[in-house]
TrEMBL record:
<dbReference type="GO" id="GO:0005506">
    <property type="term" value="F:iron ion binding"/>
</dbReference>
<dbReference type="InterPro" id="IPR006620">
    <property type="entry name" value="Pro_4_hyd_alph"/>
</dbReference>
<dbReference type="GO" id="GO:0031418">
    <property type="term" value="F:L-ascorbic acid binding"/>
</dbReference>
<keyword id="KW-0256">Endoplasmic reticulum</keyword>
<keyword id="KW-0408">Iron</keyword>
<dbReference type="GO" id="GO:0004656">
    <property type="term" value="F:procollagen-proline 4-dioxygenase activity"/>
</dbReference>
<dbReference type="InterPro" id="IPR044862">
    <property type="entry name" value="Pro_4_hyd_alph_FE2OG_OXY"/>
</dbReference>
<keyword id="KW-0479">Metal-binding</keyword>
<keyword id="KW-0325">Glycoprotein</keyword>
<dbReference type="InterPro" id="IPR005123">
    <property type="entry name" value="Oxoglu/Fe-dep_dioxygenase_dom"/>
</dbReference>
<feature type="domain" description="Fe2OG dioxygenase">
    <location>
        <begin position="393"/>
        <end position="511"/>
    </location>
</feature>
<dbReference type="Pfam" id="PF08336">
    <property type="entry name" value="P4Ha_N"/>
</dbReference>
<dbReference type="GO" id="GO:0005788">
    <property type="term" value="C:endoplasmic reticulum lumen"/>
</dbReference>
<keyword id="KW-0560">Oxidoreductase</keyword>
<dbReference type="InterPro" id="IPR013547">
    <property type="entry name" value="P4H_N"/>
</dbReference>
<keyword id="KW-0223">Dioxygenase</keyword>
<comment type="similarity">
    <text>Belongs to the P4HA family.</text>
</comment>
Length: 533
């Protein structure tokens, strides 16, 4: 440091009432973290303001550098943290997540303000599990993900060594080839702790053994012995591997690599994931020229809507540009304060589930701006969306927000399948306005954002993938015209969100009010008057 800098610092130190020891500590940190004296003094100023000691400051600066934050951002964070009475550890966790998920500090703090719990260990495991699901669904290469790259988009911060190991652990139950690649990435990322190295090698040995690659299993076992020379189990495993190699040599199968990697296979999920990726879909506009775009009249004179027909049976349509940017924002803003974790099934049981990972809240037509949007739905569909305190024709808007990794696995929107599973009192537990209004005859779903990647709506029974496009809305009937049964072909899902934000607004229209609008037909093949009038 220059004499000038020292005197500046001493001046500050006096000002902040620090001892010489503290000053020298600070100077040391400053050198270490490559900060200017001005930055230090700013920080010390904040620290005093927030009543922190030098140790806490240095911890913070360390984190800040690690996460590549500016001093201003740190102070914002510390301000929030003190306000919410968090420890420095809590802050760093928060910063880590904030960076990782690329949300702003302000968004995070708003979440805290609304009583959303600060991330803890469970969230960490949840986050890792979510990443594993994304990697599997979208077939992301391990190396890319490890360095924070997804589809050529780079996160500010890649994952760290501990994350690599945790990904390996998680994949042991999902897919062995991915598990292997994470353990390899972990071991390449620098000298590991002996215990962790042992854990990685032990898992790798298990995988090789299951794949009957005894040569590699033996080599891996040998590495475990280097970490843990007394390990009797591993020694006896090695004898076994040796014996198996002999047997293979005799039978001529040695060196013929089968590479059988265990993976949890579920055919229906595999197809669902392929649809989410967009592999071999029937309705891709480039693949299938039959995808039809038409202009449709609404019930109001002179107004036409652009309709993309993604499927004819059942009819699944995407209406383009049916709300304005302003209306989409408005719905998100109004819904934000009320967001809570989405639940599935019986509302009295408070069930959350990995099947549906999102947050939601309800918007009612009592709000004139929301009413306008409901009326738009009525105009386009010709169905009634009138909300009443009893016998409502449609439900309130359900606004759903998905975080990265958020999804809704294949499901029906109607209830009647659940009757068959003995949950037929579901309909009796509904809020009063919906009692006796029948089932969800149709779904009208607005997309309120353009996700950067992932988040399509897919229909695995009919191989249809509807792309999420901001201000557009998907529409389909859950019931056939005969009206007595839910249509199984409407099975659908919200694919995991890979990057960006996904918000949707659901309007479920009830059977009750539609008697004269969508008449039942005795002829099950009758053309739907809603579509063909
Ligand atoms: O988010 C999606 O694409 C589908 C959402 C959905 O199906 C639902 O909320 O019922
Ligand atoms: Fe749905």
């Amino acid at each position: 440091m220059t004499i000038d800098e020292i005197q500046l610092l001493m001046g500050y130190a006096r000002w902040w009432d620090m001892t010489v020891d503290e000053i020298q500590l600070l100077v040391g940190y400053a050198r270490w973290w490559d900060m200017t004296v001005d930055e230090i003094q700013l920080l010390v100023g904040y620290a005093r303001w927030w009543d922190m000691n030098v140790d806490e400051i240095q911890l913070l600066v360390g984190y800040a550098r690690w996460w590549d934050m500016t001093v201003d951002e740190i102070q914002l964070l510390v301000g929030y943290a003190r306000w919410w009475d968090m420890t420095v550890d809590g802050i760093q966790l928060l910063m880590g997540y904030a960076r990782w998920w690329d949300t702003t500090v302000a968004v995070r703090s708003a979440a805290v303000q609304r009583g959303v719990a600060i991330p803890d260990d469970t969230d960490y495991r949840g986050a890792i599990l979510g990443l594993a699901r994304l990697q599997k669904t979208y077939r992301l290469p391990t190396e890319e993900l490890a360095h924070g790259r997804i589809y050529n988009i780079s996160a500010k911060q890649g994952m760290n060594k501990e994350d690599f190991l945790e990904m390996g652990r998680v994949f042991m139950n999902i897919d062995h080839s991915s598990a292997m690649s994470w353990f390899e990435t972990f071991l390449r990322a620098g000298v590991p702790e002996p215990e962790e190295a042992k854990e990685a090698y032990t898992n790798m040995m298990t995988i090789y053994k299951l794949a009957e690659d005894y040569e590699r299993a033996w080599i891996t076992a040998h590495k475990i012995l280097q970490e843990d020379p007394q390990n009797k189990d591993v020694k006896s495993e090695m004898v076994l591997f040796q014996r198996n190699i002999e047997v293979q040599k005799k039978s001529g199968t040695y060196g013929i690599q089968k590479y059988y990697w265990k993976s949890a296979k579920d055919k229906s999920l595999e197809y669902y994931e392929a649809l989410c990726r967009g592999d071999n879909i029937k309705n891709d506009i480039l693949v299938n020229k039959d995808l039809i775009c038409v202009y449709r009249k609404g019930t109001l004179p002179y107004v036409q809507y652009k309709e993309e027909i993604h499927c004819f049976n059942p009819r699944i349509s995407l209406f383009i540009d049916v709300i304005t940017d302003k209306q989409a924002e408005l719905m998100r803003e109004k819904a934000f304060p009320g967001l809570f974790r989405a639940q599935v099934g019986d509302p009295t049981l408070n069930l959350t589930s990995d099947e549906r990972i999102s947050k939601l809240s309800w918007l009612f037509d009592f709000d004139p701006e929301i009413l306008k949007i409901s009326q738009k739905v009525a105009d386009i569909t010709g169905l009634s969306t009138t909300y009443r305190s009893q016998y409502a024709d449609a439900e309130a808007f359900q606004v759903v927000s998905y975080g990265i990794g958020g999804q809704y696995e294949p499901h029906y929107d109607y209830y009647d399948v659940r009757f068959q599973y003995g949950q037929n009192d579901m309909l009796n537990k509904l809020p009063l306005p919906l009692m006796g209004t029948g089932d969800r005859i149709s779904t009208f779903m607005f997309y309120l954002t353009n996700p950067t990647a992932g988040g399509a709506t897919v229909f695995p029974q009919v191989g249809v993938r509807v792309p999420p496009i901001k201000n557009a809305a998907a529409f389909w009937f859950n019931f056939d015209l005969a009206g007595e049964r839910g249509d199984a072909k409407t099975l659908h899902a919200g694919c995991p969100l890979l990057l960006g934000q996904k918000w949707v607004g659901n309007k479920w229209i009830r059977q009750g009010g539609q008697t004269f609008r969508r008449r039942c037909s005795l002829d099950r093949y009758a053309e739907d008057p809603i579509w063909y009038s």
